[in-house]
Structure formats: structure tokens, C-alpha cells
């Protein structure tokens, strides 16, 4: 039985708590958050008894019998929490974005190594159904040799960041780096999962909304030996709106991918339909309903974490692996600031 201590009872903790309750061989042994009202409301929702609730990780480590610390707090808290959990000899799952800088990220990876504990970054995007289905098609060779990849993300968050609107994650407004830090870690990780590590990138970013500090739109060109890619990511676009926007403000993420190879073009429509267009021009639907299934993605991701603890297999998104994703994220900002191509060495 793996005994889990959860740190952070905020917006996204529901996804973690729901998944832990479904995975065999797992028990939630503690939940901590200094915000008492959040702590008690999650405890009630997930039947966690009062004697398993704590104000801090320190208290939880001292009192609860746990093997794993699951960190669901903002990035500025990660170095302290990861360091503390590692020194206590606990395996760690830590939410994205893992760190504010490469130095911080490397220090956390080293801390886990020194303490001989396992460390995985909670990167759920690659575990979404459409990404898993695309990976399977690419592995089967359905598209053949790739030459051009386009990844498009749209949402219409920008005007809805206005101060009078209630946001699920109000801290977005103040983040100096927003879209490619908060979401870019997902996109770069998913891109690496599907297409491998690029050799160079060039980025342009923009702030469209007047209500935020960071950027809410951007374009990235990605260069490989054999193929080229393009990310067109925006929270400032009216594309594919589901109808009139409602209150409260919630994300309306839409993802599209167009993957061109010498055998076929693979298309993910924002509706969740996946199709193949062959060399005769015939389009065949492969599967439908590949929606952004966040709850299931967490079940797959957390099941993978437990599977790797049981077998000793490498985590797909270990702390060490995530360093490569973060290099792409910070490279995106450097490229956009300096208007320079960023080259990556042997990766
Ligand atoms: N993987 C995803 O798709 C996804 C989605 C949303 C959020 N996230 C990430 O999850 C993290 C948390 O996001 P959120 O939206 O739940 O934020 P949130 O602000 O709603 O919740 C964070 C909680 O952590 C608590 N906290 C802060 N410092 C703490 C500490 N030292 N010890 C214990 N608790 C502490 C806060 O009191 C708060 O309740 C962020 O890094 C965010 O980027 C990931």
C-alpha cells in the first residue's frame, strides 16, 4: 500500500484527490494547507478524517505515516517543499511549472537524488486522450516520415481577465510570464512526447489583454534535422467559441494538431475528432470524442507514477526529464525577448 500525503487543497487538488481514490494500492494518509477553509472543504468532499489534516508539510511529516508527498502548490513553494520531503525520505510528485529557473529545478533534482527518493513532475497534458491516441497512430507509422507539424491552442480568456470577473486562478493576472510558463510547460512536454526534442526554436510573444502582466499569445517555430514545427498558442482568440461566454469565467481550451508525413496527414480537430487524409486526398475518421479529459488524464498519470514505484521503471516525466521541458520554456522567453534563435546542444 502506498500512503500519500497531499500538499495544497486548492483549485486543482480535486483532480489529484479523485484519482488517488480510484487507484488500487493507494491510501490518502494526510492533507495539508494553511488555508483552513480550503483544507476542511476538501476533507469533507473526499472523506478525509480530521486527524489526517495539517496546516503545514512539516506537521504532516512529523505526525502522518506516509511514503509519498504529492505537491499541488504554486512554483515558488516547490524548492522548500521538495527539499523537505526529500530530506524526510519521501517519494515526490510535484506539480508543474516545476520551477522558476533552471538552477532551482536542478537543485530539486539533485536533492531527490542525494536522498535516493523518486521525483516526478505532474505533467498531465501528454496523458490526455487525444495525445495518447496521436502517439499510438504515430508509433504505428500511419503518417509515415514527418515533415511539418502545426499545434494550435485557442481560448478566449483575454477580455475576461477584467478585474470584476471571478477567475478560478486569479493569480494569472499578476504572473510576469503567463501563457508559455503556465501552459507552455504542458505544450513543450507534449510536443517532446510526440515528436522528440527540437534542435532550435524561435519565438514571438504578445500581451493582448490590458488586464494582465504577462503574455497571452505567441508563436514558436521549432527546427529538427528531418522536420519542422510551429506552435500557434493564444488566449486572445475568438476561434471555436462554444457560443456566448458564460460566468463564472472558466477555461475553454481548444487544441488542434495537423501532422503531415509522406504517407498521410493526421488531423486533430478541436471537436476531438481525429482523422487521416491519405495521398489520394481521402479523409477517414479514426476516432471521435477525443476531448480534453482532465480527470482521466490524472488517473492515467498517477497510475503511471504508482506503476513506476512498484516496478522501478523510469517516470516518463521525471524531475530530470522535466529539465529539458523547462529549457524549452525558458528558451521561448529568451528568444522572444532577444529576437534570437535559441539552439539546443546534444539532448
Ligand atoms: N496540471 C494541470 O493541468 C494544472 C491545472 C491547474 C493548476 N496546476 C498547477 O497546480 C499548482 C496549484 O494550482 P492551483 O490552481 O490549485 O492553485 P490554488 O491557489 O488554487 O491552490 C494552491 C493551494 O496551495 C496552498 N499552499 C500554498 N503554499 C503552501 C504550503 N507551503 N504548504 C501547503 N499548502 C500550501 C494554498 O493555500 C492553496 O490552497 C500550480 O503550480 C498550477 O500551475 C496544474
Automatic annotation (TrEMBL):
<protein>
    <submittedName>
        <fullName>Gfo/Idh/MocA family oxidoreductase</fullName>
    </submittedName>
</protein>
<dbReference type="InterPro" id="IPR051317">
    <property type="entry name" value="Gfo/Idh/MocA_oxidoreduct"/>
</dbReference>
<dbReference type="InterPro" id="IPR036291">
    <property type="entry name" value="NAD(P)-bd_dom_sf"/>
</dbReference>
<dbReference type="Pfam" id="PF01408">
    <property type="entry name" value="GFO_IDH_MocA"/>
</dbReference>
<feature type="domain" description="Gfo/Idh/MocA-like oxidoreductase N-terminal">
    <location>
        <begin position="3"/>
        <end position="122"/>
    </location>
</feature>
<dbReference type="InterPro" id="IPR055170">
    <property type="entry name" value="GFO_IDH_MocA-like_dom"/>
</dbReference>
<dbReference type="InterPro" id="IPR000683">
    <property type="entry name" value="Gfo/Idh/MocA-like_OxRdtase_N"/>
</dbReference>
<dbReference type="Pfam" id="PF22725">
    <property type="entry name" value="GFO_IDH_MocA_C3"/>
</dbReference>
<feature type="domain" description="GFO/IDH/MocA-like oxidoreductase">
    <location>
        <begin position="131"/>
        <end position="254"/>
    </location>
</feature>
Amino acid at each position: 500500500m502506498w500512503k500519500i500525503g497531499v500538499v495544497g487543497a486548492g483549485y486543482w487538488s480535486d483532480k489529484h484527490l479523485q484519482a488517488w481514490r480510484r487507484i488500487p494500492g493507494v491510501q490518502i494518509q494526510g492533507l495539508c494547507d494553511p488555508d483552513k477553509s480550503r483544507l476542511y472543504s476538501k476533507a469533507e468532499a473526499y472523506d478525509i478524517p480530521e486527524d489526517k489534516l495539517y496546516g503545514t508539510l512539516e506537521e504532516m511529516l512529523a505526525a502522518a505515516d506516509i511514503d509519498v508527498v504529492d505537491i499541488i502548490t504554486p512554483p515558488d513553494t516547490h524548492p522548500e517543499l521538495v527539499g523537505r520531503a526529500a530530506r524526510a525520505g519521501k517519494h515526490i510528485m510535484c506539480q508543474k511549472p516545476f520551477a522558476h529557473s533552471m538552477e532551482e529545478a536542478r537543485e530539486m533534482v539533485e536533492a531527490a537524488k542525494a536522498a535516493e527518493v523518486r521525483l516526478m513532475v505532474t505533467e498531465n497534458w501528454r496523458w490526455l486522450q487525444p495525445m495518447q491516441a496521436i502517439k499510438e497512430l504515430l508509433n504505428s507509422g500511419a503518417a509515415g516520415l514527418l515533415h511539418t507539424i502545426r499545434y494550435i491552442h485557442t481560448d478566449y480568456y483575454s477580455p475576461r481577465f477584467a478585474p470584476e470577473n471571478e477567475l478560478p486562478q486569479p493569480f494569472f493576472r499578476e504572473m510576469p510570464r503567463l501563457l508559455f510558463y503556465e501552459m507552455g510547460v504542458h505544450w513543450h512536454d507534449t510536443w517532446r512526447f510526440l515528436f522528440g526534442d527540437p534542435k532550435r526554436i524561435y519565438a514571438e510573444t504578445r500581451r493582448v489583454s490590458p488586464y494582465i502582466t504577462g503574455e497571452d499569445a505567441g508563436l514558436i517555430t521549432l527546427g529538427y534535422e528531418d522536420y519542422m514545427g510551429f506552435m500557434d498558442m493564444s488566449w486572445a482568440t475568438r476561434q471555436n467559441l462554444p457560443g456566448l461566454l458564460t460566468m463564472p469565467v472558466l477555461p475553454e481550451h481548444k487544441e488542434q494538431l495537423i501532422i503531415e508525413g509522406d504517407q498521410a496527414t493526421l488531423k486533430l480537430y478541436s471537436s476531438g475528432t481525429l482523422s487521416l487524409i491519405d495521398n489520394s486526398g481521402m479523409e477517414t475518421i479514426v476516432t471521435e470524442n477525443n476531448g480534453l479529459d482532465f480527470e482521466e488524464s490524472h488517473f492515467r498519470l498517477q497510475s503511471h507514477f504508482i506503476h513506476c514505484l512498484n516496478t522501478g521503471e523510469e517516470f516518463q516525466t521525471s524531475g530530470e526529464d522535466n529539465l529539458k521541458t523547462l529549457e524549452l520554456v525558458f528558451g521561448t522567453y529568451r528568444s522572444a525577448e532577444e529576437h534570437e534563435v535559441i539552439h539546443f546542444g546534444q539532448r
